[in-house]
Design a protein that fits this description.
With about 400 residues, the protein is an alpha/beta fold. The protein is about 35% helix and about 20% strand. The chain has twelve helices and 19 strands. The strands form five sheets. Strands 1, 2, 3, 4, 5, 17, 18 and 19 form an eight-stranded mixed beta sheet that branches. Strands 11-14-15-16 form a four-stranded parallel beta sheet.
Length: about 400
């Protein structure tokens, strides 16, 4: 009984420490100046342009006010100066395919690691996704959460939001968008490892995409088999949320490139699935990404975090980054995949993904040049989110 009481007391103390520590840190964030000057920094801006050396970035009220060479910008007296001594500033990274994003522990771990936005592509449960997203996004210690619909499918299909006809599909999409959802997610899936599901028809997929585009929202398609790609291509989806597990058809590959459809390969997922089930999907998806990238395809970083029972990186998605390298992607293009391109599939490219005047100040600062070694992305020197310093890391 005594040990039980001590255990409960210890747990209560730890909970109180966590709560009051979080409150204290939140208060310290609120006391920060809303005007920052990052001086003597090197910039990799997310556009693919070569790094800029010895730059100044002025941040005011959460946004990038001005960028320029040292000596060309007058720093107002009220700005708090942070001398970065040559450290590299990148846009905050974005993981465009996660699950369990409605979880503050996950959101706070990601933010501390420099992943300043995530897109949850498969919410579960009966809560109000939009209301919960907005509540979570109010906390400055949480990474930004982008909300997709529950996975739209046929009754008893792969997903949880059922529609029976093109007309019903349009009505459901309209309801979701008017509620404030960020992106429409659909399943074009009929069979995975012997598990068989009814699948959306081509007409239903076209109606979903057309309805979403009419209301200025994008559509992400879950697809795992090459045979189902044509439905998505013909309908004009905006991104495909998994690399397919059979070799890519050459004609379809070029159609996807020509139609500017983005792709999140989720290589970390397929590596884990292949290990668990003794499959070669990791090898096939890696080869498919290599071909897609070589053909000029647009890749966005997405891991499918917690989308299956395999292991996922719980902080910075360095495994996905390393696998992209194995597929032949350059360090610069991997950075673009995790910043500009990931912002696009989140429908946030006007606000995030590149370091430009007027955009939200979500920034990852690292001590060394990631174009030489991407592993440095795991060691943030600073993380800035909505213009506030939320993590003071190290310079190693």
């Amino acid at each position: 009984m005594k040990h039980h009481f001590l255990k409960e007391s210890l747990i209560l103390s730890l909970i109180c420490l966590f709560i009051f520590g979080s409150i204290s840190y939140t208060q310290s964030l609120n006391k920060q100046s809303d005007s920052l000057a990052l001086v003597h920094c090197s910039i990799i801006d997310g556009t693919g342009a070569p790094p800029l050396k010895d730059r100044i970035i002025l941040i005011n009220k959460g946004r990038i006010k001005q960028i320029g060479a040292a000596g060309d910008i007058a720093i107002p007296a009220e700005y708090q100066k942070i001398d970065l001594a040559g450290a590299f500033v990148l846009p905050g990274f974005i993981n465009a395919h996660v699950h369990n994003g409605y979880n503050e522990t996950n959101l706070q771990r990601w933010l501390q690691a420099g992943v300043t936005t995530v897109r949850d592509l498969g919410p579960h449960g009966s809560f109000n996704f939009v209301k919960e997203r907005d509540r979570l996004n109010l906390n400055p210690l949480n990474t930004r959460l982008v909300s997709a619909t529950p996975l739209i499918t046929k009754p008893q299909g792969y997903g949880s939001c059922y529609i029976n006809s093109p007309e019903e599909a349009e009505r459901q999409v309209t309801v979701f968008i008017k509620s404030g959802i960020d992106v429409i997610k659909i399943a074009i899936e009929d069979n995975l490892q012997g598990r068989v599901w009814p699948m959306l028809t081509s007409a239903e997929v076209r109606r979903i995409v057309n309805s979403a585009h009419t209301l200025k929202k994008r559509v992400s398609a879950h697809i795992s088999h090459t045979r189902n790609l044509q439905i998505a291509i013909d309908a004009g989806v905006d991104d495909i949320s998994h690399m397919v597990v059979e070799p890519l058809d050459e004609k379809q590959l070029h159609q996807i490139v020509e139609k500017n459809i983005y792709w999140e390969p989720t290589l970390e997922l397929w590596q884990g699935v292949s290990k668990i089930h003794s499959l070669d999907w990791d090898r096939i998806t890696l080869a498919n990404l290599a071909r897609f990238y070589k053909a000029g395809g647009k890749v966005a970083l997405g891991t499918d975090f917690d989308g299956y029972v395999c292991q996922f990186d719980r902080d910075f998605p360095i495994t996905e980054v390393a696998l992209m390298q194995q597929a032949g992607m350059s360090n610069m293009d991997i950075i673009i995949a995790g910043t500009r391109n990931a912002a696009y599939v989140c429908d946030l490219e006007r606000e995030l993904g590149t370091i430009e005047q007027g955009k939200i100040a979500d920034l990852l600062v690292v001590g060394r040049n990631p174009l030489d070694d991407l592993k440095v992305l795991q060691k943030p020197y600073l993380v800035i989110h909505n213009g506030l310093v939320v993590n003071k890391g190290n310079s190693n």
